[in-house]
Amino acid sequence: MTNGQEREVTIRLRGISEKKYAHIVNALWMQLRAIDCDFSVAPDEQADLSELDKRWDEYSQVSWTGGGRSGTPQAVAAHQIPRTVTVESR
């Protein structure tokens, strides 16, 4: 649909903490941004905006080279990728 028509999706969450709510709202924003949508995400009136910011700030603490126990899962996976590929020609 490329005619500028707006679409809407409703997600109702029950019995979740402010922390989990913040993760979900931020994840929705990140996913829509990653697929290059023209969108808006509007937290509900009960949302603790400081909690949303706090969770968002936690994501910036993820490091490819830092972290304990040999780094974050991203760092471990990155170190397992071969850095060079040898191609033999015949």
Describe the structure.
By secondary structure, this protein is mainly alpha-helical. The protein has a domain at 18-64. The chain contains three helices and no strands. Helix 1 packs across helix 2 (49-59).
User: Which band does the percent of strand residues land in?
Assistant: under 5%
Taking the sheet with the most strands, its summary is: none
The low-confidence parts are none
Tell the overall outline.
Answer: flat
Order of helices and strands: HHH
- Structural class by sheet pairing and helices: mainly alpha
Q: How many H/I helical runs?
A: 3
What is the residue-mean pLDDT, rounded to a whole number? Answer: 78
What attributes characterize this protein structure?
90 residues, mainly alpha, 0% strand, flat
